[in-house]
């Protein structure tokens, strides 16, 4: 019975990864830009709005499949909470710096290109989990890589806000609130991931499906890169 449950658990998580890959390939319909009522709020809001911006930041992170794919890759083989905390902190520092620098400092980058690099971060992490760099005799600094890719993820967040004409009144407080929301959303998503990974690791199917799951993760990254580069070429 345990063996059957283990297989089912691994299968479900494998198909979840496949769904995430399909979400990336799904294009603009599943993109996580700011639109609809959220965009309307940003366009008309003036002054400081701490609560709404925290909500928007959390929502953007929780629905940001590219950020979640990278986080999943980062914690895939991390078993100790202190290691998870270290890597996630490095990621948070990276994306916080460039989110605030991009919006408050007026630093603009091409949204398609930065999102392509975010896709590359997913490919990189999956390749590392698969031992691809070790086979090539390369030993990347994993902590530095997470921090650097975190910088690009922050620019990705900034480009979504830069697409909307946000009022300059109360901008600093609102952007800090948005960043706090991003961290809250990241904490919620990370907690759910850790629960899922802990349950999966308790079964025998984790190691049996680890290779296939990271292959799917890598494919999702490549699909994201291809989609964004196509958008850049056509824009």
What does this 3D model show about the protein?
By secondary structure, this protein is mostly helical. It has one domain (2-234). It is 79% helix and 0% strand. It has 10 helices and no strands. Helix 1 (2-25) packs parallel to helix 10 (205-234), helix 4 packs across helix 9 (171-201) and helix 6 packs antiparallel against helix 8 (142-162). The longest helix is centred in the C-terminal third of the chain and has 31 residues, at 171-201. The protein is globular and about 55 Å long.
List the helices and strands and how they pair.
Elements: H1 2-25, H2 36-44, H3 50-62, H4 65-75, H5 81-104, H6 111-129, H7 132-135, H8 142-162, H9 171-201, H10 205-234
Helix pairs in contact: 1-10, 3-9, 4-6, 4-9, 5-8, 5-9, 6-8, 6-10
- Summed up, the helix count is 10
Helix and strand content put the structural class at mainly alpha
Characterize the overall form.
globular
**Mean pLDDT figure:** 85
Number of strands: 0
Total domain units: 1
Instruction: Note the main sheet.
Output: none
Helix and strand run:
HHHHHHHHHH
- Measured on Cα atoms, how large is the radius of gyration? 18 Å
- The residue ranges in which pLDDT falls below 50 over 5 or more consecutive positions are 1-11, 17-31
N- and C-termini, Cα separation: 54 Å
Query: How large a portion of the residues is in β-strands, by DSSP E?
Result: under 5%
Percent in helix: over 70%
Short account of what is shown:
With 235 residues, the chain is mainly alpha-helical. It has one domain (2-234).
């Amino acid at each position: 019975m345990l063996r059957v449950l283990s297989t089912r658990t691994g299968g479900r998580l494998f198909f979840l990864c496949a769904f995430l890959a399909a979400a990336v390939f799904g294009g603009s319909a599943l993109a996580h830009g700011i639109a609809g009522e959220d965009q309307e709020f940003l366009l008309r809001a003036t002054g400081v709005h701490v609560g709404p911006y925290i909500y928007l930041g959390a929502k953007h992170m929780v629905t940001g499949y590219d950020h979640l794919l990278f986080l999943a890759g980062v914690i895939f083989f991390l078993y100790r909470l202190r290691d998870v905390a270290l890597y996630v902190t490095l990621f948070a520092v990276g994306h916080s710096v460039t989110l605030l620098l991009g919006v408050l400092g007026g630093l603009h980058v091409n949204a398609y290109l930065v999102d392509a690099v975010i896709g590359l971060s997913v490919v990189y992490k999956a390749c590392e989990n698969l031992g691809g760099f070790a086979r090539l005799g390369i030993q990347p600094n994993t902590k530095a890589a997470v921090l650097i890719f975190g910088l690009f993820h922050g620019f990705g967040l900034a480009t979504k806000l830069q697409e909307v004409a946000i009022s300059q009144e109360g901008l600093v407080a609102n952007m800090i609130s948005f960043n706090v929301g991003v961290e809250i959303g990241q904490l919620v998503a990370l907690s759910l991931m850790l629960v899922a990974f802990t349950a999966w690791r308790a079964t025998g199917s984790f190691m049996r499906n680890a290779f296939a799951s990271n292959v799917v993760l890598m494919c999702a990254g490549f699909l994201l890169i291809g989609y964004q580069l196509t958008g850049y070429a056509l824009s």
